[in-house]
Amino acid sequence: MSxxxxxxxxxxxxxxxxxxxxxxxPGAAFAQAADKIKVxxxxxxxxxxxxxxxxxxxxxxxYVGEQGGKLGGREIEYFKVDDESDPAKATDNVxxxxxxxxxxxxxxxxxxxxxxxxxxxxxxxNTILIVPNAGADAVTGPMCGPTIFRSSFSNxxxxxxxxxxxxxxxxxxxxxxxxxxxxxxxxxVNGFKEGFEKNGGKVAKQLTVPFPNVEFQALLxxxxxxxxxAVFAFFAGAGAVKFVKDYHAAGLSKTxxxxxxxxxxxxxxxxxxxxxxxMLTTLHYADELGTERDKAFRTNYAKAYKLMPDxxxxxxxxxxxxxxxxxxAAGGDIGKKDVFRAAVxxxxxxxxxxxxxLSKAHNPVQDIYLRKVEGKENRKLGVAVxxxxxxxxxxxx
Length: 397
Ligand code: PHB
Known about the structure:
alpha/beta; Rossmann fold; nine-stranded mixed β-sheet; six-stranded mixed β-sheet; 15 strands; 22% strand; globular; binds P-hydroxybenzoic acid; BCAA_transport; ABC transporter substrate-binding protein; Peripla_BP_I; Leu-bd
């Protein structure tokens, strides 16, 4: 062995000994408590959902900023991975945060398929995960867990009310659905179908395109030929912009109303313009709810980021609020997972969307608004379903 090599080994051993003795000092506990809490953002920074990732991170950072940069007395340090909304890369990406960066908390993501891989990894490593968007029913269903929380919605939860409204209020009888072929789209379509068919409607045909494909022409031609009374679509982000514009350009919006969960028109209205006017959607947020809480949130967000807030910003903000509740109860000690969990389970979160609590499976129990696009806003028409809880099918907690 060369001298240089030996030196490195020897210095390493010395450093280890020094560290070991430091850990025995009475000051060590204090030093540990003063460490930062490591938050790992796993969000899309590229692709069709990139803008959603930005809004979530903005909302999260804004809440932490409002608390002076500390939650539960601990400073927050951020780590980031661009998940590209790619389920095939999800396990490697989440392990970068868990194993390489050794984060205390995972915050992510937008895409349901990626979120399911995150939930699996979080469970295996007993890491706290707060999902600030992805609605995968399984995350608060069969995959639910003591350290897994969601600040957003389940895919069923935002779509079921649109089915009820389409049948009961709008009197539609015969609908077609169209979405990307992956968990979120399929679950949203199933939710719509359940609400619609329970109230006398019938879903005649379900169309899909692969995610994140935006070549819609052939399917729009099929819709035009079939002439249903209504179309229900799940798309979001850049894909939602393209779909709503194509639907309008094909001349369909004049004769066949286009419905969806509010993702179809949230954070997208600047780009959709004329094409989205008058559309009805259901979601757990709307522009200008008029409460003091929401007004303050919207003003501060616009000031901080020079952007109008949307549902994704709200969900990011509330993920930080949930972390704050748990950390505060645990006295800043993220290791006290039972205390953390108990506190978040019994909390009422003062969200810009309105107060919400969590279900047993850790999904928000919340009002779902009926909204109508007017200009650049999703205006609240009323509450489609009050205090709606996801059924949490398959969750054993
Ligand atoms: C999802 O994949 O769960 C998802 C993505 C974007 C949305 C809503 C849900 O806007």
